[in-house]
Structures are given as C-alpha cells and as structure tokens.
Design goal:
Catalytic activity: Hydrolysis of terminal non-reducing beta-D-fructofuranoside residues in beta-D-fructofuranosides
InterPro entries: 6-hairpin_glycosidase_sf, 6hp_glycosidase-like_sf, Glyco_hydro_100
Family: Belongs to the glycosyl hydrolase 100 family.
EC number: 3.2.1.26
CATH topology: Glycosyltransferase
Strand order of the largest sheet: 1-8-7-4
Oligomer: single chain
Protein name: Alkaline/neutral invertase
Structural class: alpha+beta
CATH class: Mainly Alpha
Helix content: 25-40%
CATH architecture: Alpha/alpha barrel
Number of strands: 16
C-alpha cells in the first residue's frame, strides 16, 4: 500500500492540497437514473460471448444489445465534489445469502459484518470499501478506496447478488479517469485510472468531495498500471454476473476502455508484445526489482485485453481496437508461453546455454548468462511442475515465483491447460514454501543481504520474508481458489482455506503475515484489512458454488493453440 498525502481530514492528517485532484461528479438525482432498470441479456445456453473465439470477434461479431444509453443520461458535471468514507455507517444491504444447504462456517457472518463496516458512501450511495479499518494504527492512505483492493470486495457483493455497489464503483472511477492528471509539470495519459480515491466531507458547506490519487502521492510517484486492467476485468465480471450489458455499452464506458487500451497498445521502440513498466506499479507497489516486464502486469494485461474483446462494440472506433487487440493477444500468448515459462527441461536448457551469440539463429535469444541462475532454483524446481517466471528482458531473467501473476495466467487462459496443470503441480509439490502455515506467498523466495540492499534500496518494510518480499497474503486465497476450480483441483483450495480459517478471525484479519512459513502477523500489517476479509469470502463462496468462478475465469481460445510450439531460439 503506498503512502499518500491529502489535506486536513477527519483523522487529523495534514495533506498537501496542491497534489490532489478534486473531481466534479454526477449529481445524486442524475446518478440514480443509471441505477434503475438494468437491461438484461438473454442468457441462453448457446455459447456465451466469453466462449466465442478471437476469430469470431475479429470478423465482426459484436455481443451487444440494440439499446443505447445516451450520454445525457450518464449524468452532468457539477461544480462541487464530494466526500469521504463513512466506515461507521450501517449498510442497507441484507445479510449474506447462502446458495447451498450447507451450514455456514462461523467466520462467514463475522466476515460479512466486517466487510459491510468498510463500505464507503458518496452522496448516500455505496461506492467502494475502505482499505483497512484498523483504529490502532495511523490511517496514512488505508482510509481510501483502492481500485485493486476493491476487486475481491466487488466479487463478494456480485456473488451475493448485490451488484449496485459494483456499478457505483465502476461509474465513479470512470469519472475520475476523465479528470486532468498532473505530477509536477507533467501531464499523465488520459486513460490512466486512479490508484485510489477518498471521500471528504465539508461540514460547513455540507458537501462531499471525491479526491483521487493517480500516483502523484504514491511511494516513488508511480502511476498504477494495474488499475485500468482491474477496471476492465471488473466491468466484464459485472456484465457476466448480472446479464446486464447496458453498463458496458454506455458511450462513457466504451470510451474509458478505449483510453486504457490506447495507453497499452501504442506503438513504440519495444521489440516485445509485453508491456514495459516501472517498479512499484502494481500490487507490489514498492521497489522490489519488478521493473521491466513483470508477470503480474503481463497476465493482467492479457486478461484485460480478452475482457475488452467481449465488451467493445464493433462500431467505427471499436472495430479498430478489436483488430489491434486480436493481433496483440496472439503475439503475447506465444511470447509468454515460450519465453516466460520454466520447467525442469527448460531450466536444464538454460543451464547449458552458450552466450554472446549473434543472428536470428541464436539459441540464447536474450543472452542470458547461465552463471546468473540462482542456486535455489535447482532445488525448488520439481520433476513435475512449472510456472511463469517473474520477468524476462535482455540478459535478465527473474526466476522468482509470483502468485498473482501465475493465478491470473491460469484464469485468463494465458497458460495452456498443460501449463495450468503444471502450476498446480508445483503448488502441491512446494506447499511448505508457497503456502506454509498461512496462504499465500506473494513471491518466493525472499531476497536478502547484499541483494536486498541493492534491489530494494534497504527498504525497512520489505525485509526478508516480510510484506512484498516473501510475505504471506491471505487476499491471494480467492485467486488460488478460482485457479483450483478451473483446473479441477478444488482440494488444494480447501486445504489452503482450512489453514486461513484457523487463524484469520482470531488474528483480526491481518493484511499479511511474516516468516518463511507465514507464522507471524506482519510487523507493519494492518488489522481488519478489507481485502483479506473479502478474499476469504470469495474463496468460500466459490467452493460452495463453483459456478461463481465464471465471473473471473475465461476459457482457452482455440485459435491460439497452434502458437504453442517452442521457438527454435529456445531449443537446445
């Protein structure tokens, strides 16, 4: 979680108003019009539009209704903007709905109560969930609604039949995207989505104001690359869950997607289809050596592209994007499946590479020095199993395991069925290392000693086996569960869930755990961390009703299968 500044708020934190953005919003009466009368798709059991191939889309298929929502109905801008979270407010939502006849675990009711306490309201409408409700710690930016943090909360509400808050969140963040974004004298791209926002209340004027952080207050001043991808993924999940395509069909939502995609699909000097990023631009939002082409961003990018294909209209503007997306997906699937994938055979091939080769016939295409292979990888790699490594760029391969990227690779079908099975095999084979006593390691292994000083800049929060440096994050449980269901291995998720249930409630829902096994509550972990709570609920609901996983899981596109031959440049 990145530290940010704001102006004076109810917690007494003094913040610099010059670096924050106040965003004009839809007036309450106008905003309410969008929440009424959802248009439902006819969800027949033919092929859902998630199951149609890239080829279908590229030749002109458009999964949309003929109805339109005019931009006038989207709402008009007002001069005053509004305000802040109301963590103490009671939600008007009903108690959680059970979709099975099984008796609920006693943690479930506690988790739902904690999740509802975290709701943030704007002009009487719930628009998100606060990052954490730990009254024993300074708020910093944990009193804000983070885009990535809200995702598991959104899935929990969707699975419980409460889509209104998700719709509100999608529309509010969309309006924030349209605002001018500057850091010092530099203007950010129009499509950048905020990392977070908060609602401030002015008791004198009785107004509420939304204030967004686009990276100008973050550690290192890095814009959140993942926010836009999560927004598109969440829009598809809302459409899939409700059968209501009218939200995605709004001209403003269509434009929002195109703006995000324009940032990522623009041509430049890059020779790879993957997305070049700065360190700290995703869940790992501090310096951790994930600059370049981190697996988390590439997997999210791939999934967002696939979701956008399903949501974009094939009008004059949308058709061009569909063609560009289709080409990029083919290139990315080949590149990632070939160059980011490692298993025992591929490890042995790299170990035997020659260096300083030239021409298109080179075997060692990225000039990886075999002596740079870390010692731990040889013992870590099982006979059966494999994974997508953390990063690949010229003369550099980051062999660390990153949980989020590999789970999203499975769910987005970036991984082939064989690769998905291998990732599950790896998790089972290396349970102590990757799960331990509390799921799940955000990355493995931790970096330490001289490497830690160089890579993190002596970051006191990312010491070995803590926080993003090998810490254990309960929020990742929902992604693991969805991946397990997709690969037909729910027993792995149940085993991890039982571990979480033995401690999470007793420990007051920590943000993360420390230690090689995740035995200790993180030294700077917030309690009552909302995405720890929501991640547990989503995992629980998916195991009770596996059909819920369809909101976040995409089937493999058969059009991409022939591209799975390994490149000659990586064959020994």
């Amino acid at each position: 979680m990145s530290n940010s500044s704001s102006n004076m708020n109810q917690n007494g934190n003094v913040k610099n108003n010059d670096t924050l953005f106040t965003v004009d919003e839809i007036e309450e009466s106008e905003f309410s019009k969008l929440l009424d009368r959802p248009r439902h798709l006819n969800m027949e059991r033919q092929r859902s539009f998630d199951e149609r191939s890239l080829g279908d889309l590229a030749i002109g298929f458009s999964p949309r209704l003929s109805t339109r929502v005019s931009s006038e109905n989207f709402g008009r801008l007002s001069d005053n903007y509004d305000h802040s979270p109301s963590p103490g407010r009671k939600s008007d939502f009903n108690t959680p709905r059970s979709h099975t006849g099984f008796e609920q675990h006693p943690m479930v009711a506690e988790a739902w109560e904690a999740l509802r306490r975290s709701l943030v309201y704007f002009r009487g409408q719930p628009v998100g969930t606060i990052a954490a409700l730990d009254s024993t710690e300074e708020n910093l930016n944990y009193d804000q609604v983070f885009v990535r943090d809200f995702v598991p909360s959104a899935f929990a509400f969707l699975m419980n039949g409460e889509p209104e808050i998700v719709k509100n969140f999608i529309l509010k963040t969309l309006r924030l995207q349209s605002w001018e974004k500057k850091i010092d004298r530099f203007q950010l791209g129009e499509g950048v989505m905020p990392a977070s926002f908060k609602v401030l209340h002015d008791p004198v004027r009785n107004t509420e104001t939304l204030i967004a952080d686009f990276g100008e207050s973050a550690i290192g001043r890095v814009a959140p690359v993942d926010s836009g991808f999560w927004w598109i993924i969440l829009l598809r999940a809302y459409t899939k869950s409700t059968g209501d395509s009218s939200l995605a069909e709004l001209p403003e939502c269509q434009k929002g997607m195109r703006l995000i995609l324009s940032l990522c699909l623009s041509e430049g000097f890059d020779t790879f289809p993957t997305l070049l990023c700065a360190d700290g631009c995703c869940m790992i939002d501090r310096r951790m050596g994930v600059y370049g082409y981190p697996i988390e961003i590439q997997a999210l990018f791939f999934m967002a592209l696939r979701c956008a294909l399903l949501l974009l209209k094939q009008d004059h503007e949308g058709k061009d994007f569909v063609e560009r997306i289709t080409k990029r997906l083919h290139a990315m699937s080949y590149h990632m499946r070939t160059y980011f994938w490692i298993d025992l055979k591929q490890l042995n091939d790299i170990y035997r590479y020659k260096t300083e080769e030239y021409s298109h016939t080179a075997l060692n295409k990225f000039n990886v020095i075999p002596d740079s292979l870390p010692e731990w990888i040889f013992d870590f790699m099982p006979t059966r199993g494999g994974y997508f490594i953390g990063n690949v760029s010229p003369a550099r391969m980051d062999f660390r395991w990153f949980c989020l990227g590999n789970c999203i690779a499975i769910l987005s079908a970036l991984a082939t069925p064989e690769q998905s099975t291998a990732i599950m095999d790896l998790i089972e084979s290396r349970w102590e290392e990757l799960v331990g006593e509390m799921p799940l390691k955000v990355c493995y292994p931790a970096i330490e000693s001289h490497e830690w000083r160089i890579v993190t800049g002596c970051d006191p929060k990312n010491t070995r086996w803590s926080y993003h440096n090998g810490g254990s994050w309960p929020v990742l449980l929902w992604l693991l569960t969805a991946a397990c269901i997709k690969t037909g291995r729910p027993q792995i998720a149940r085993r991890a869930l039982e571990l979480a249930e033995s401690r999470l409630l007793k420990d007051n829902w920590p943000e993360y755990y420390d230690g090689t096994l995740g035995r200790y509550i993180g030294k700077q972990a917030r309690k009552f961390q909302t995405w720890s709570i929501a991640g547990y609920l989503v995992a629980k609901m998916m195991l009770e009703d596996p059909s819920h996983s369809g909101m976040v899981s995409l089937e493999e596109d058969k059009q991409m299968k022939p591209l799975m031959k390994r490149s000659h440049s990586w064959t020994c």
